[in-house]
Amino acid sequence: MPLFRTTALVVTFASAVFLGTAASPVAQNVKTEDMDRSVKPGDDFYRYANGGWLGTVAVPAGQANYGTSAMLVEKTAQRVRDLIQDAASAQPVKGGIAQKVGDYYASFMDEDGIEAKGLTPVADELAAISAITNKASLSAYLGTTLNTEVDGLTANADHIFGVWVNQGFEDSEHYVFHLLQGGLGMPDRENYLDQSPKVAELRTQYQAHIATILKLAGVADPGTRAARILSLEIRMAQTHAPDADAADVFKQNNPWKRTEFVTKAPGMDWNAYFKSAGVDGQSEFIVWQPSAVTGTSALVGSEGIDLWKDYLRFHLIEHYASVLVKAVAAEDFAFYGTILSGSAQAPDRSKGAIAATNGALGQAVGQLYTQRYFPPEAKAKAQAMIGDLITAYRGRIANLAWMSPQTKKKALPKLSALRIGVGYPDTWIDYSTLAVVRGDAIGNMRRAEAFNRLRNLAKLRQPVDPDEWRIDPQIVGAVILFTPNTETFSAGLLQPPYFDSQGDAASNYGSAGAGIAHEISHSFDELGNIYDDQGRLGNWWTAEDLAKYRAAAAKLVAQFDAYCPFSDLCVNGKQVVSENIADLAGLLAAHDAYGLSLKGKTDVVIGGLSGEQRFFLAFAQRWRKKQSEASLRRQITADSHPPGEYRSDSVRNVEAWYKAYQVAPGDKLYLKPEDRVEIW
Fold it and tell me: Which pLDDT tens digit goes with each residue over 646-657?
């Protein structure tokens, strides 16, 4: 079972292409003009809700699909772009967050200044690498590269290890040092181990890339050294755990004492490593991939110092490539952008500058964003909706037929303990000690990394903060952490077309409410049932619960197996069942919560639609998406989420939908009451 789940979307910062039509009289998150009222709701609810939109919108050139989430990402990206560029062109208060944001961006954009400095800004770090003479000084240098900003719970390429500071698997009161594998320049261990001709050619191209970077750095005999660096990374990859292991948290839960590293992973001078990493006093560790730690440490002990110094020089230049001379940046894109990602042309530099500014000063940008786009009243309205969702789940869990009384006694306290962050943190990161100097791009990057690293490591000396914020407010997405028992929904996500703080309850609960309730369900299903109310490992379902749950889920599997968008390809119900269960759970809980919000009153009719109709319409419109046949086929083959059309069809399991739209026997979506699924 995974440790966490993220629904964060990649913000591309592309210019807006199509943001939908003007807001209807209903609300910005229900667009009646996007409907096709010629379609009977009971025959094809997805096209009834979205037919007008599907008939007019086009997938932008160069994209495989386009839908509600992409529209929101584009809109948010443009807002963030404007905020950062405004800060760069203005003259904000010196030392304030706007000054730091603006100067960081402006420094990244100063290509002429960066070009004039050449490699001088990294001369001190290159000298530090050259000064390495033995295993102790090598281990000490490697400790200075310890990365606390991990991606997918794997350290970045320029760090042989990473650390994720989080509570322990059995200890919810203390932060623990979670040590993670890293150090590979290509994205996946299979890029090094797969013997197919295509991947072998990729390794050849990577070796050429290494040689080019070394040549640009003035390193002699770059071809020979590049071959040796690739050989080293192949041997590192051979010790790495496969990515699939990350899905099983029990494989990651490997507690090591500080004193055990010498015997379990000989080769590295661990005293020198931990001292230079700034965690000399840490006694408890959780090693996620022991084979990688043992294997990499052995390579530190067995391989020559000069090879490691070449490896470090290459990755140092790669690390700073975006803020180094154009030749380095161009070579970096030629491999990572074109060869690995298939991009024919480098994006506008401002796109990278905005991404870098977000990465370095995420919550500073978040403050600027929420001040303008997510006021306190929007947060309060979203919090009230979430309160209703929790109340709805409390009632549903209490009445579940498949969950035993003893399991309910564990589920209900977990629900009460669930911490849900909304929009933005109550306490922001204090950036006052971080110096950002206009014109010093590499210095700014270096100081920001050090600031964030020290801030993360400082948590090891503090009690666990259950309200720690895990996603920047301007990102369109959500993060669910099973340990601790928390969920966070960003301001970027909580806006039209999902959530309109000025809209009516039916629309909000049917769209954002159902989405949030979907994520809440994962804390109580087969993903979250191994974590207790404090996020500690411990399965709280009985075997009988699991058997009944899966028996009920089998009906939903069969329902989705029958969806066949192509004559030769149908949805795999078993592959998508977890997400389908969460969709249905979210829809049912959100409908209950919507009823609670009315406090016994009948909702008004707006735009000819009753509150019940608007609720289900909003749910269907949240899933609208246009995509190429190839994209749809890929999704059906490999994705754990079914196509949006079929996600919207979850309504056919809900009695209230039948009443709202007068769906009757003979309608294509009609299900007999005994065939409707209601797991939650």
Answer: 999 999 999 999
- Count Cβ atoms below 10 Å from residue 90 Cβ, excluding itself: 10
pLDDT at 155 > cutoff 80: no
pTM (whole model) above 0.85 = yes
Q: Which two tokens stand for residue 163?
A: 């650390």
The single-letter code of the amino acid at 669 is L
Element (H, E) at 66: strand 65-67
| pLDDT score of 29 | 65
Beta-sheet strand order (sheet of 284-287): 161-167, 175-181, 284-287, 255-257
Domains in the chain with CATH codes? 21-56+375-426+467-675 (3.40.390.10), 134-303 (1.10.1380.10)
Q: Which are the contacts of 69, defined by CB distance < 8 A and separation ≥ 6?
A: 9, 476
Band of the pLDDT at 5, cuts 50, 70, 90?
Answer: low
Find, among 314, 309, 66, the residue nearest to 186 by Cα.
Answer: 314
Q: Which two tokens stand for residue 658?
A: 């039948």
Q: Give pLDDT, residue 344.
A: 83
Q: What pLDDT does residue 13 have?
A: 23
N-term to C-term CA, the chain: 21
How far is residue 642 CA from its own chain's centroid? 19
Q: How far is CA 663 from CA 406, 617, 645, 653, in A?
A: 39, 14, 18, 12
Q: Which residues make Cβ contacts (< 8 Å) with residue 223, sequence separation at least 6?
A: 211
CA-to-CA distance for 607 and 100, rounded, in angstroms?
Answer: 46
* Short-list 647, 400, 421, 610, CA closest to 514: 647
| Per-residue model confidence as pLDDT tens digits over 424-436 | 999 999 999 999 9
Helix, strand, coil distribution of the chain in percent, nearest 5: 55, 10, 35
Say if residues 407 and 548 touch (Cβ distance below 8 Å): no
pLDDT tens-digit map of 567-584: 999 999 999 999 999 999
Instruction: Please report how many Cα atoms fall inside a 13 Å half-sphere around the Cα of residue 186, on the Cβ side.
Output: 29
Segment 183-224, tens digit of pLDDT: 999 999 999 999 999 999 999 999 999 999 999 999 999 999
CA atoms of 399 and 402, how far apart (whole Å): 9
